[in-house]
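User: My collaborator sent over this chain with a note saying "see what the structure looks like." That's all I know about it. Can you take a look?
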Amino acid sequence: MSKAAELRPVHWTGGGLRLIDQSRLPQELIYLDLSRYQEVAQAIKEMKVRGAPAIGVAAAYGLALGAQEIQAKTKEEFLSKLKEVSRTLASTRPTAVNLFAALSRLEAKAQSVGLAQIKESLLAEAQRMEEEDVAANRALGQYGAALMEDGFTVLTHCNAGALATAGYGTALGVIRAAWEQGKKLHVFVPETRPQLQGARLTAWELKQEGIPFTLITDSMAGHFMKRGQIQCAVVGADRIAANGDTANKIGTYTLAVLARENKIPFYVAAPLSTIDLNSASGDDIPIEERNPEEVTHLRGQATAPPGVAAANPAFDVTPHRYISAIITDQGVIHHPYKSSLRKVVHGQTAAK
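Assistant: Without extra context I'll predict from the sequence alone. Here is the result:
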């Protein structure tokens, strides 16, 4: 097992939360040790930790840390103060459903135990979420690897690797699992403007793993698809609506349309925790708008004239009709997503 596969980007050390500062990669591998929920919220907002599963686990630990600071004489008073901590964490980023699901799960746990047990119970629940995420990623990696044939060239987008989770990865976990099975793959990695998660993070993970890859600009994907140099695409997700519409890093929709045009399978890989049955379709998914300076500047250097107007949606939504299958920790889900997703989330057998 490579060092990249064993990365724990979001990990409880016993005394606090340890994060890899992903804004410093690939130049430096720096760990942040956080002991207050405000620090966790800032790390999420500034994308020092990013990726839907990783954000969810970090938020869970953030709420557990916030609970440690609360002094209250009654359970009602404690829960009221805990809600304020939860609101702070929830306000950081709007698109990844894992963030809100994690906070709801811990708030429900707090409701279910006595006042004296809340602090200990929340920390234990956050630790369970960390362990569950790693296990889920390894499971979906195995399911997805079955879709990867020996000799495939695979396109991925952004970073859906160990860095985007509590460990191992989703889309990159699929590629990693196939590689570990001995399948010879080559990966095409779009740079993923404006934050360059592909160039900075996915390329770093693949290099650590020893998996051959080619870095391309975002606009090159159609060229290589048309030339027959890509056999399939696999991406992660920040939120999957009940009908299968999927929000992922900006540029994903474009790649899905190109894949359909060139008859290339387009897969989404995500644990069940990323499925949001409360969002009927992609129209219900909030899209984060980030600072336009991320577009007009690159790593602090201006790339456009002063005063230029810029748009910066962090995500787009890929309609379900462009998605060949959704790879989850419970199996591979196929059309019709509206019924199959609901069955799997509710514990029924619909995945194959």
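A starting point for your reply to your collaborator: DSSP finds eleven helices and 16 strands in the chain.
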